[in-house]
Amino acid sequence: MKNPFETEERRAFRETVRRFVAAEVTPYATEWDEAGEVPWSLHQKIGALGAWGFGVSEKYGGLGFNDCFMRSAFSEEFAKCGAGGIGAAVGGRSISIGPIEKFASDEIKDRILPDIVAGRKGSSLAITEPSGGSDVANMQTTAKRDGNHWVINGSKTFITGGMKSSYFVVGARTGDKGLKGISLFFVEADAPGFSRTVLDRKMGWWASDTATLHFDDVRVPAENMLGEENRGFLSIMNNFNYERMGMVASMLGMMKLCLEYSVAYAQQRETFGKKLIEHQVIRHKIADMSARIDQIETYINWICWMTNEGEMPVAEVSKAKFSASKALEFCASEAMQIIGGAAYLRGNPVERIYREVKVNAIGGGSEEIMRDLAVRQMGL
Ligand SMILES: Cc1cc2nc3c(=O)[nH]c(=O)nc-3n(C[C@H](O)[C@H](O)[C@H](O)COP(=O)(O)OP(=O)(O)OC[C@H]3O[C@@H](n4cnc5c(N)ncnc54)[C@H](O)[C@@H]3O)c2cc1C
């Protein structure tokens, strides 16, 4: 689809990512996903592409500018490797970079941000708790002030990159009940009292590690509070939008892969004396998948245009997120039907994408929570 927002710079960036993924990621996608990890050198290669530098000052190795179109192009093209777990393994850090860059002290940023942006070290955002992820306002982990320190107690779960990250942005309750009693903290993995256990045997995203984090009297200096006390949630609202947009764009990439794979298969497979692609039922499936892809792509362009104009289109991002996971669910299912038994075998990207639909429908704000948020934005 022709993109009216394309510029030479955006086209070149997308092309660079596309070529990188085709040469350096896709050929190894099945191997890494089955192995449950990616080589650390991949983090550094992606860092060199500038993927984590959006909105980060050049002083810390960032790009010194932000562009929603380029960010989305990265997520979309990367997803075309066909293994969402690889994107999560390396890109898990992206949702913690914003709060660190925006709120951490200069001392912390000088010391750690260049390593995160370049892919030498990992970082994670830790919000979800064993008692629940949707009801953030009910967060149970606490941070109590003790002289020049905060003492953190509690646990976080489902943390992407949690086993390997060196740094964490952690939400904890510092005040009263509700969203206005939550603050954010910068915590290092070697802090006494911090430990982690792996969450294994996931349905998908095998290449990425997922952890439960335990905080047992973890003391952090007072300057490790990120942003204002009790305003932690409010200060990362925009961060959630970027996280969700990254997921929407990545779902678009997966939808395109489903279409591409099923068309290629239908063009060569014969049933009942003719090519599969010549059967009208199959052609209709392709039309329906293609229409959903166009809808999500158009939505992304519109949201990126608004975001670049300085708006924070919360309602549109929420609607795009649940529309995209529903569209991906449809495309993955139809692609499986077109390919048939061959798509049921491990190693086929369509099989993997079909299993990864649900993490997109649940993680980063579930479909239900996204709908709630969208309706609230309508003033209802
Ligand atoms: C692979 C993976 C990686 C993740 N990575 C991270 C990460 O890096 N950092 C992090 O902080 N979190 C992460 N998460 C957690 C994710 O954000 C949560 O799973 C998600 O927010 C939902 O929380 P929950 O699973 O606790 O479900 P719950 O909040 O317990 O909800 C259960 C179900 O009920 C629905 N529900 C809840 N409330 C309502 C309501 N009011 N009305 C209708 N339906 C409702 C939800 O939509 C959900 O489907 C990850 C999750 C997964 C699966």
SSE blueprint:
Blueprint: H1 8-24, H2 29-35, H3 40-49, H4 68-79, H5 84-91, H6 94-103, H7 106-118, E1 123-126, E2 142-146, E3 149-160, E4 167-173, E5 182-188, E6 194-198, E7 210-221, E8 225-226, H8 232-235, H9 237-268, E9 270-271, E10 274-275, H10 280-308, H11 314-339, H12 349-362, H13 367-377
Parallel strand pairs: 1-4
Antiparallel strand pairs: 2-3, 3-7, 4-5, 5-8, 6-7, 9-10
The structure holds flavin-adenine dinucleotide (FAD).
Task: Name the features.
380 residues; alpha+beta; Butyryl-CoA Dehydrogenase, subunit A, domain 2; Butyryl-CoA Dehydrogenase, subunit A, domain 3; 4-stranded mixed beta sheet; 4-stranded antiparallel beta sheet; 13 helices; binds flavin-adenine dinucleotide
Outline the structure in words:
The protein has 380 residues and is α+β, with helices and mostly antiparallel strands. It has 3 domains: 8-118, Acyl-CoA dehydrogenase/oxidase, N-terminal domain (Butyryl-Coa Dehydrogenase, subunit A, domain 1, Orthogonal Bundle); 123-231, Butyryl-CoA Dehydrogenase, subunit A, domain 2 (Beta Barrel); 236-377, Butyryl-CoA Dehydrogenase, subunit A, domain 3, CATH 1.20.140. Helices cover 51% and strands 15% of the residues. It has 13 helices and 10 strands. It has helices at residues 8-24, 29-35, 40-49, 68-79, 84-91, 94-103, 106-118, 232-235, 237-268, 280-308, 314-339, 349-362, 367-377; strands at residues 123-126, 142-146, 149-160, 167-173, 182-188, 194-198, 210-221, 225-226, 270-271, 274-275. The strands form 3 sheets. Strands 1-4-5-8 form a 4-stranded mixed β-sheet, covered by helices on one side. Strand 2 and strand 3 (149-160) form a beta hairpin. Helix 6 (94-103) packs antiparallel against helix 9 (237-268) and helix 9 (237-268) packs antiparallel against helix 10 (280-308). It is globular. The protein binds flavin-adenine dinucleotide. Flavin-adenine dinucleotide binds at residues 92, 124-128, 132-135, 158-160, 202, 205, 210, 359, 362-364, 366, 368-369.
